[in-house]
Structure formats: structure tokens, C-alpha cells
Amino acid sequence: MKTLQTKNTLLLICAIFLASLQTACAQTQPTTNTNITPQQQADNLKKNMQNPQWRKDNYIVNRDSAFANPYYAMQKLRGGNQRFQQGRSIHPRQDPGVIKSLSDGQTPFGIIVGCSDSRVSSEALFDQGFGDLFVARTAGQVMAQATYASIEYAYLNLNTKLIVVLGHTSCGAVSAAVSLPEAPPGHIVTLINAIKPAATAVSGKTGNQIENAVRQNVINQVNELRQLESVLSRGYDSGDLLIVGAVYDLATGKVEFLEETLQDFPPTNYGTEDITGR
Length: 278
Known about the structure:
The protein is an alpha/beta fold.
């Protein structure tokens, strides 16, 4: 009888211990408020923006500064991509208040000339929101009159001062220009013909032929826009408009701004110091 009582006592102690352990573990689990509204998220983000250390840790560049200065705009894109790579996107400007205000007009701080590939979403990979980026997309970033006019509209009418030509790794259009398939269907041949100069330029070079052509294609397209008469060439040559190129890595999420397009800019009155995190 005494042995049975002892066993019952031990079982009771074990049960109490396990219950206490369960409670302690539950209290240490991180809590996620799934009921937070978009407006509450926006309010939290606005509060964080006032914290100097948070701004530094999250590579923040003020939007007004990015809109006024294309060099700061490029810094803002770099910072957003760093957050995206690290899985720390802040998803700015996606609350109902911003969306409603944009019905009155737009002031994008960057023009992105990108590929139609479904894996290359500029707003996501640069961690930007509604009204931040003016995006023109075609396969392989191949441009024609409608693309030129769209870019010129953003520069002249929306006062957007930064153009980024954004290619990406494993681009199907570039791959076609490298492999030169026989009798491509429909209008696909127009893409191949537009990209073929880049493929030819890197032929025989060391490294991956397609990825080399991707980079060269972006460089060619940057030069195309810099030399496009009369609006873009004059804007670039005067130092008022910045035109650069970058490549997005599908595997890593990183955007690499190409050094070949970051050199020998025309003289400019814009400040070029790094203001990231200030």
C-alpha cells in the first residue's frame, strides 16, 4: 500500500513538472499578430523610420531624397535589394492611405527597364511599394518606340531621374540569341536579332556564354538609351538623368549594378555621397 502511494506521488510530481514545462515553453514562443491591419503595419513602419539605428540596420534612404537625386535613388534600390536578399523586406507604401493618395498622381523615383520574366518583379526584389517604380518590361529588355516613349514620359512628365536597365541570369531571350534556333516562330526573331550583337561580342570569351551575353546585353542597352536622341541623350549628357545597368541573380536574389555602367558619368550638380541609413 505504501509503495502504491509513493508511485502515485511520483506520478503527480511528474505531471506537475511537465505542465509547468509546457507553460514555460509556450511563454517563450514568439507571438505573431496575424490580425494586424495594413494600416497598423504602415504605422509601425513610420515609427521605426524615426529610429536612427533601425534606419542604419535596414539601409534606409528617404524617398524624397531618392526622388530629387538619382544617385540617392540608386542607393535606395541597393538598400531595398539588401533587405530582400536577407529576408527582411519591409514592404513599404502598401497601405490603403498610400494607395488612395496615388489616385491623384504618381512620383516614381526610379524607371526600371526590365525583362518580362515572371521571376523578376522589380517592386519585390528592390523592396519598394506602390508608386515607387515606373516599370517597362519586355523579353530580354528589348526596346522599341513604345518603350522609348514610355521612358521619356516618365523623365519629362513625372520628373524621374534614374533609369536602371535590369537583366537577369538564365534569360530565355538571351539564350535564344546565343543558340540561334532555326526558323523561330512568329515575332520571336525580333528579340533574337536585337540581342544577337551582345551574344556575338562575347563569343569565345571565358565563362558561361549565356551569362556573359546577359551582362553585355544590359551594357549595350544602357548605351542605347544614353545615345537615344533627343530627350534621353540630352538629359544624360547634361548630368540631369542617370542611366545605369544591373543584373538580377535568380538563384540568390542579388542585384549587381554593373561596374561598366557606373564609370565616367558626365559632370552633375547632384550630390553623390552615400546617405544610406541616415
